[in-house]
Amino acid sequence: MKKIVFLDIDGTLVDFNAKMPESAKRALFLAKDKGCYIALCTGRTITNIYPWLLEFPFDGIVASAGAYITCGKQKIFHNVLRKDKLNLLADKFIEHNAAYMFQGVQGRYIDELNKLKMQDYMISLGFDNVDAMNSMTLCERPYEMDQIESGMYFGADKDIMFMQKVIDPYFKITGSSFGQDRSYSGEITCKGIDKATGMQKLMTYMDIPQEASIAFGDGPNDVEMLQYAHIGVAMGNADDSIKKLADIVTDHISEDGLYNGFLNLGII
Question: Which structural domain range is residue 75 located in?
Answer without folding.
Answer: 4-79+193-264
